[in-house]
Amino acid sequence: MKPTEDDKIIHTDCAYYRGSAPCIFHKRDGRPCPGCPDYAPLEKKILIVKLDAMGDVLRTTAILPALHLKYPQAQVTWVTRERSRALLEGNPRVHRVLAVEGNYLETLLAEKFDLGIGLDADELSAKILTLAPCEEKLGFVAGKFGQAEIVSPEAELWWLMGLNDRLKQANRRTYQELMYEICRLPGPVARPELPARLLDLTWLHQRSAELGLVPGKRIIGLNTGGGGRWQCKKWTVAGYVELVRRLRLKLPEATLLLYGGPEEVEFNAAILAQVKNGLVDLGCGNSVREFVSLVSLADVFFTPDSLGFHMAVALHKRTVVLVGPTSPWELDVYGRGEVLTADPTCAACYRSRCERQPTCMETLDPGVVEAAIMKQWNLPN
Question: Fewer Cβ within 10 Å of end Cβ, the chain: N or C?
Answer without folding.
Answer: N
